[in-house]
Design a protein that fits this description.
The chain contains 3 helices and 7 strands. With 130 residues, the chain is an alpha+beta fold. The protein starts with a helix and ends with a strand.
Length: 130
């Protein structure tokens, strides 16, 4: 199913997102992330050694809120599930693409473990001002 155009508008622009996953004890954990979207999924890139990845391996339910950098009262909240993960060269290339989007150059932070793209299938959308 095609992604809601309100999500595509905000996620493909240079806007940040808050990714919320569930810790083993059920408490939410939220991080500010770079975000993107393809035709059907919201995309988040992380590393397999990070807590957020361990969280979605155990429980794929997530919430992603993307806000407009120019007007934070314009936002879209997505509730869904990590439907697929992508590793290897595609995930490494994706972090460079995201870095170019947000910083204008290749990703320069040290990579401690393998990069992974979380492909999030949208189940529910709440939008404000979009």
């Amino acid at each position: 199913m095609p992604l809601d155009p309100r999500i595509t508008e905000l996620a493909t622009a240079k806007n940040f997102a808050a990714l919320t996953t569930l810790l083993p004890d059920g408490h939410p954990q939220t991080q500010v992330m770079w975000v993107h979207a393809d035709d059907e999924h919201v995309l988040i890139n992380t590393e397999v050694g990070r807590q957020k990845y361990r969280n979605v391996e155990r429980d794929p339910r997530v919430t992603v809120t993307v806000w407009d950098a120019a007007n934070p009262y314009r936002y879209v909240e997505v509730r869904g599930r990590v439907a697929e993960t992508v590793t290897g060269p595609d995930a490494r290339d994706n972090i460079d693409e995201l870095s170019h989007k947000y910083t204008g150059h290749d990703y320069s932070n040290p990579i401690g473990t393998e990069r992974v793209v979380l492909r999030i299938a949208v189940e529910r959308v709440h939008a404000n001002g979009v």
